[in-house]
Amino acid sequence: MIKTLQIRLSLQEEAQEGILKKKAAKYLSLEEQTFSLKIVRKSIDARKPKIVFNYKLLAYINEHVPEDKFNFDYKDVSKSKKVHIIGFGPAGMWAALRCLELGYKPVVLERGKNVQERRRDLKAINQDHLVHEDSNYCFGEGGAGTYSDGKLYTRSLKRGDVRRVFESLVYHGATEEILVDAHPHIGTNKLPKIVQNIRETIIDRGGEVHFNTKVTDFHIQNNTIKSLVLNDTDEMQVNRVILATGHSARDIFYLLNDKNISLKAKSFAMGVRVEHPQHIIDSIQYHCKGRRDELLPAAAYSLVQQVKNRGVYSFCMCPGGFIVPAATAPGEVVVNGMSPSKRNNLYANSGIVVEINIDQDIPKFEKFGALKGLEYQKNLERLAFTSGGRSQTAPAQRLTDFVEGTLSTDLNSTSYQPGLNSAPMHSLLPKLIGSRLRQGFAEFGKKMKGYYTAEANIIGVESRTSSPVTIPRNEHLEHPEIKGLFPCGEGGGYAGGIVSAAMDGERCAEAAVVDL
């Protein structure tokens, strides 16, 4: 017999060994040796001073807990029909894995390097301020998801099977805790090995993964994609192409636009990163003074405020994390956040961004048509580059100085390795963004007492929250004008994180093999 239980533990109870079994036995009116427990869900409720751990459990009465077996039917596809996949981020990876299950050979073309070689280029941007255009925090094996917090929370529950994606991650080396935690994450220190394992699965089953292979042109005949040009020289014949290049592959947007292939401008968001000492966020969220209890993870937050008919909200919040340079070309500064698996860094950071209505907010960029949002992004990233000191040093300001309109005479310490340069962000940012951020931060300070503090820095710019361009597709997930081309994931405008991109990759793979 199996029974479902909901058990709540106080912080003090959570520290007691065997407490779940003891409480379950009392609830079931059974001896502890007569049943076994399996944790289905775990969350923390810290809304009140008395913190509670919530558990959803399955009690197996007079029977053993079955082992979780994550068996995926990855077939030998070495002699199968090919599906070409451009990009090896989450969308591309899961498209390739789904091809294996469906019996088709994925041929992955990735402009960047594998995870091991990619580290050298990350070191170069952090220490030497050198940006490799095809190998950076956005491009390379695993895409932007590899060197990130690995947050797996998604609202895209209608797009596919979230559990399948999680189980696939466990199959490839992630801890089973991601199947249980209410807000699961993997950590930037563990993701590279998982990504490598996914690549090895693809190759072992007969698929192909080609690094340092940049698609520089498409050949189209009779509105059908026929071949790809690689690195400006080699031509590869294709039948079905899944385009999973990510939201920062601007060259792909320009290429499609130059070929008069339909694109649409898409609303997006831009702003800054805000960085607090982690202990400040802990003290607010856990109602504590001093260090948080060792049983509690580094505290996170989620904030939103309507300001002048636009949303101002937190994005990609990284507790116990650090800020990294996410530029993909020289002459721009872009910041992003990430965390290790233990989330044990001294700082908490989050993007704080403003909604930008693509049809109303940037009239000066209308001349760029479908690429107007992209050009607006680039303009702000170049501004961050010059105001930061014409390197990967980022422009920054104390939070209170930003809101009050005062240049910071000095800045707080930071996790951002290339360094900070004091700049008048309050006047540099366009009013569309800056004025709303200033009011939004003031309101956030009212919602979280202690959040609005001179101990926090704001760092610019957070500009790659999502794609400013949509590559349209029809009900069969195919481009309405180009047969055989399947726009996919964040780059197509159809996902907003690791899990939603992975699910979209699976769907595109299923669509691409129809009648192949």
Describe this structure in words.
The chain is α+β, with helices and mostly antiparallel strands and 516 residues long. The two termini are 47 Å apart. Helix content is 28%, strand content 25%. The chain is built from 14 helices and 21 strands. The strands form five sheets. Strands 12, 13, 14, 15, 16, 17, 18 and 19 form an eight-stranded mixed β-sheet that branches. A hairpin with a 6-residue loop joins strand 2 (35-45) and strand 3 (52-61). Helix 3 packs parallel to helix 6. The protein is globular. The model has no long low-confidence stretch (mean pLDDT 95).
Which strand-content bin applies to the residues? 25-35%
- Bulk shape: globular
Helix % is 25-40%
Rg estimate, integer Å: 24 Å
The parts where pLDDT drops under 50 for at least 5 residues are: none
Determine the N-to-C terminus distance.
47 Å
Secondary structural class = alpha+beta
Q: Residue-averaged pLDDT, rounded?
A: 95
Largest sheet: 8 strands, mixed
Q: If helices are DSSP runs of H or I spanning 4 or more residues, what is the number of helices?
A: 14
Q: How many beta strands in the DSSP annotation?
A: 21
Assembly form of the protein: single chain
Descriptive terms for the model:
516 residues, alpha+beta
Write the layout of secondary structure elements.
Layout: E1 2-10, H1 11-14, H2 19-28, E2 35-45, E3 52-61, E4 82-86, H3 90-102, E5 105-109, H4 115-128, H5 162-171, H6 191-204, E6 208-210, E7 215-221, E8 224-230, E9 234-237, E10 241-243, H7 250-258, E11 264-265, E12 268-277, H8 278-286, E13 304-307, E14 310-325, E15 335-338, E16 347-356, H9 372-388, E17 394-398, H10 399-404, E18 420-422, H11 425-428, H12 431-447, E19 457-462, E20 469-470, E21 485-487, H13 489-492, H14 498-512
Helix pairs in contact: 3-6, 3-14
